[in-house]
């Protein structure tokens, strides 16, 4: 306003414009203004993945956004400058699904995001397993990876995007990490491999495979569930998936080269001196070697023997080196024991329990353990023992998923679910019994995915399968698959085929450059100690036809495809052997009914009789459940499902239901027939009439009372108790109400 109302010379205006231009340039050159850098990754499917950085969270060590379609995920990484622990990497991955990203409001009481859901926890584990193997061995700084959904379109899944965004964020940061990696989802539709399928395509796909890989086609992580895919098709999908990840890796490297921070120097934790390590080695090597060569030891005996050697060696070392750190000494001892254990596998050609590389542990199984249970089984493999039970219930007991999980997965509810429990006594430990942890949730989800394809989708009951680990010495999740399959057959669930699972291990030797594997041994049916001291825990489950689920936890920085394919083939052979042993216990699903099995049937009820069955506010159904334990749920307008915990309860409920439906039997009314109706109530919209004694009143609407248009029945002088002639036109097919008319009879008279 001041400039507009004041007269300036041309020279003054020129100076003002010059100042304006200088100010605008200063703002544009301000370092606080965001500068967005992005790369575009093209896949063979024609879909493009966009990776960008520089716009958000610039105070974090690294931040990247991955977008596919209209789904975008932002990942930030932050690591403390100094190590906080020794012996392991304190990496925490938190993946959160935000309702706002889908245009929703949370449905809980507080209307905000609360604790992580099962899907969020499983996705966090998925990302963790993809990132953890590539951190340097001595990097023990506390590191946190946070994955936030910015937007989700319900078409493209955000979990794979989170892995790629985390890879880009770590590569761009100054955190030491030997990446990048790339991840893709692989589908299989009509013998064709699909890369990053949409949610709709995923529902049609017989395979849901996530592949994480690094340069040189080295596999870092695998996770899959399948509708019984053939082994050769699965191998083909893995190869194509690894090939597609290389495009992502090259683009992340471009982004890193142009905009990445230089990696920070880190010292790692303190290490023992050469003198102390030599003393530890000389006191340990021979005694530990003898223990691992003694095949008579079981898990507890071997652990106790190693613990005795540890205590004895530590006392002798402390007498010579007074000021030594106990934690460092313990870490050095573990390192020597691990080295001895691995070398013996190559030298002896046998494992610590005397088995050959491809040999299974002794397996025994039993079904129908306790009469009150619908189905039960105990599966024992070596010193791993699981007790599985099956409970059958009505469809009302199906597991309902939260709205955001429904949007991202396309599954609204599950009528089959598995709950896995790992109490501390299974490994002779003490601990708290309470809500399940992330590990238990992950193992249970894997076992559930392994069995879900063989469970019929149209089964009339909801199935809850529980697996409690009573003893554990490795591969308890795959034992849950075997025990769960036996328990389901014992419960009479008509499985398409039995399923079994096995865990594969790996021990490798690297060359002098520590970049290439020069020798390796694949171990079938993994022991707990082989998992702890080995390089891989590869779980594969399926039936005789093919694979239903797999999960690969790889502890070294990348695994060649050749080893992956060999492990899959060895697992297929072992799976066939296990299925043969299970077949001797129970051949097929039980056909003769147990006395305690629940009963389910469909009940057809005419529309006009629904009120009799349900009662006011459903009081009849509630009373039926309270008296007999039988529940009634409506499927559609005329069909109800009746669930009873036993046949005797169903028989009792049948009597009650028949009594409800047959009370005051309705006389047969002829369509188009003329009947005498008695007025029982006057209403604003018409009159309520009855055609016979005991009949529920039916409405004769104002529009059907007279040829003339009336606003109230009193205009015709009608009164309660008066009799009318009406014509019957059947019942409304939706509401079941009678259709009556007096007007049509007046037309006939005229």
TrEMBL record:
<dbReference type="GO" id="GO:0004654">
    <property type="term" value="F:polyribonucleotide nucleotidyltransferase activity"/>
</dbReference>
<dbReference type="GO" id="GO:0000175">
    <property type="term" value="F:3'-5'-RNA exonuclease activity"/>
</dbReference>
<protein>
    <recommendedName>
        <fullName>polyribonucleotide nucleotidyltransferase</fullName>
        <ecNumber>2.7.7.8</ecNumber>
    </recommendedName>
</protein>
<dbReference type="InterPro" id="IPR012340">
    <property type="entry name" value="NA-bd_OB-fold"/>
</dbReference>
<comment type="similarity">
    <text>Belongs to the polyribonucleotide nucleotidyltransferase family.</text>
</comment>
<feature type="domain" description="S1 motif">
    <location>
        <begin position="672"/>
        <end position="743"/>
    </location>
</feature>
<dbReference type="InterPro" id="IPR003029">
    <property type="entry name" value="S1_domain"/>
</dbReference>
<dbReference type="InterPro" id="IPR036612">
    <property type="entry name" value="KH_dom_type_1_sf"/>
</dbReference>
<dbReference type="GO" id="GO:0003723">
    <property type="term" value="F:RNA binding"/>
</dbReference>
<dbReference type="InterPro" id="IPR036456">
    <property type="entry name" value="PNPase_PH_RNA-bd_sf"/>
</dbReference>
<dbReference type="Pfam" id="PF03725">
    <property type="entry name" value="RNase_PH_C"/>
</dbReference>
<dbReference type="InterPro" id="IPR027408">
    <property type="entry name" value="PNPase/RNase_PH_dom_sf"/>
</dbReference>
<dbReference type="InterPro" id="IPR015848">
    <property type="entry name" value="PNPase_PH_RNA-bd_bac/org-type"/>
</dbReference>
<keyword id="KW-0548">Nucleotidyltransferase</keyword>
<dbReference type="InterPro" id="IPR001247">
    <property type="entry name" value="ExoRNase_PH_dom1"/>
</dbReference>
<dbReference type="GO" id="GO:0000965">
    <property type="term" value="P:mitochondrial RNA 3'-end processing"/>
</dbReference>
<dbReference type="GO" id="GO:0005739">
    <property type="term" value="C:mitochondrion"/>
</dbReference>
<keyword id="KW-0694">RNA-binding</keyword>
<dbReference type="InterPro" id="IPR015847">
    <property type="entry name" value="ExoRNase_PH_dom2"/>
</dbReference>
<dbReference type="InterPro" id="IPR036345">
    <property type="entry name" value="ExoRNase_PH_dom2_sf"/>
</dbReference>
<dbReference type="InterPro" id="IPR020568">
    <property type="entry name" value="Ribosomal_Su5_D2-typ_SF"/>
</dbReference>
<dbReference type="Pfam" id="PF01138">
    <property type="entry name" value="RNase_PH"/>
</dbReference>
<dbReference type="GO" id="GO:0000958">
    <property type="term" value="P:mitochondrial mRNA catabolic process"/>
</dbReference>
<dbReference type="Pfam" id="PF03726">
    <property type="entry name" value="PNPase"/>
</dbReference>
<dbReference type="InterPro" id="IPR012162">
    <property type="entry name" value="PNPase"/>
</dbReference>
<keyword id="KW-0808">Transferase</keyword>
<dbReference type="GO" id="GO:0005829">
    <property type="term" value="C:cytosol"/>
</dbReference>
């Amino acid at each position: 306003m001041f400039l507009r109302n004041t007269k300036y010379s041309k020279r003054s205006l020129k100076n003002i414009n010059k100042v304006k231009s200088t100010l605008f340039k200063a703002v544009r050159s301000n370092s606080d203004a965001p500068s967005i850098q992005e790369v575009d990754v093209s896949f063979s499917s024609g879909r493009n993945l966009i990776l960008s950085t520089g716009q958000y969270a610039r105070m974090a060590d690294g931040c990247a956004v991955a977008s596919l379609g209209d789904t975008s995920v932002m990942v930030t990484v932050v690591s403390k400058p100094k190590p906080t622990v020794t012996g392991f990497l304190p990496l925490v991955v938190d993946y959160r699904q935000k309702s706002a990203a889908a245009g929703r409001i949370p449905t809980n009481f507080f209307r905000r995001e609360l604790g992580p859901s099962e899907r969020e926890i499983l996705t966090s584990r998925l990302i963790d397993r993809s990132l953890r193997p590539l951190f340097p061995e001595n990097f023990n700084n506390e590191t946190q990876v946070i994955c936030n959904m910015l937007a989700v379109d319900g078409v493209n899944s955000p979990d794979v995007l989170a892995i790629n965004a985390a890879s880009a964020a770590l590569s761009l940061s100054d955190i030491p990490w030997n990446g990048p990696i790339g991840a893709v989802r692989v589908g299989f539709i009509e013998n064709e491999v699909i890369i990053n399928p949409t949610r709709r395509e995923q529902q049609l796909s017989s395979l849901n495979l996530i592949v994480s890989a690094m340069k040189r086609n080295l596999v870092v992580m695998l996770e899959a569930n399948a509708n019984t895919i053939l082994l050769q098709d699965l191998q083909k999908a893995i190869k194509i998936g690894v090939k597609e990840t290389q495009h992502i890796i090259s683009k992340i490297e471009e982004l890193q080269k142009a905009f990445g921070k230089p990696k920070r120097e880190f010292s790692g934790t303190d290490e023992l001196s050469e003198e102390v390590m030599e003393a530890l080695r000389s006191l340990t090597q021979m005694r530990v070697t003898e223990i691992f060569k003694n095949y008579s030891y079981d898990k507890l005996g071997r652990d106790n023997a190693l613990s005795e050697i540890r205590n004895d060696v530590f006392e002798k070392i402390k007498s010579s080196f007074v000021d030594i750190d106990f934690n460092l000494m313990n870490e050095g001892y573990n390192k020597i024991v691990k080295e001895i254990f691995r070398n013996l596998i190559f030298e002896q050609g046998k494992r610590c329990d005397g088995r050959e590389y491809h040999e299974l542990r002794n397996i025994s199984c039993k079904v129908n353990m306790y009469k009150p249970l619908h189905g039960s089984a105990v599966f024992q493999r070596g010193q791993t023992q699981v007790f599985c039970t099956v409970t059958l219930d009505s469809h009302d007991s199906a597991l309902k998923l939260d709205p955001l999980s429904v949007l991202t997965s396309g599954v609204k509810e599950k009528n089959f679910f598995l709950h896995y429990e790992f109490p501390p006594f299974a490994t002779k430990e003490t601990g708290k019994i309470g809500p399940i942890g992330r590990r238990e949730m992950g193992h249970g989800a894997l076992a559930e995915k392994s069995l879900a394809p063989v469970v019929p989708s149209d089964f009339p009951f909801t199935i809850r399968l529980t697996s409690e680990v009573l003893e554990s010495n490795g591969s308890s999740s795959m034992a849950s698959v075997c025990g769960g399959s036996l328990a389901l057959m014992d419960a009479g669930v008509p499985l398409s085929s039995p399923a079994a699972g096995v865990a594969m291990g790996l021990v490798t030797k690297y060359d002098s450059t520590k970049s290439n594997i020069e020798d390796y041994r694949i171990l079938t049916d993994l022991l707990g100690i082989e998992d702890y001291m080995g390089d891989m825990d590869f779980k594969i489950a399926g039936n005789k036809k093919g694979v239903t689920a797999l999960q690969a936890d790889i502890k070294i920085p990348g695994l060649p495809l050749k080893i992956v394919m060999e492990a899959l083939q060895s697992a297929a052979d072992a799976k066939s052997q296990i299925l043969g042993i299970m077949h001797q216990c129970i051949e097929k699903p039980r056909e003769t009914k147990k006395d305690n099995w629940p009963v389910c049937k469909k009940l057809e009820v005419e529309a006009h009789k629904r009120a009799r069955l349900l009662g006011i506010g459903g009081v009849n159904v509630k009373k039926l459940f309270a008296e007999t334990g039988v529940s009634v749920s409506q499927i559609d307008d005329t069909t109800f499902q009746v669930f009873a915990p036993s046949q005797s309860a169903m028989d009792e409920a049948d009597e009650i239901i028949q009594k409800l439906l047959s009370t005051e039997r309705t006389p047969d009314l002829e369509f188009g027939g003329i009947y005498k109706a008695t007025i029982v109530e006057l209403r604003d919209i018409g009159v309520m009439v009855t055609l016979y004694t005991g009949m529920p009143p039916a409405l004769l609407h104002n529009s059907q009372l007279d040829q003339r248009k009336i606003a109230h029945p009193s205009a015709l002088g009608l009164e309660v108790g008066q009799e009318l002639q009406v014509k019957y036109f059947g019942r409304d097919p939706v509401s079941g109400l009678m259709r009556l008319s007096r007007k049509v009879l007046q037309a006939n008279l005229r």
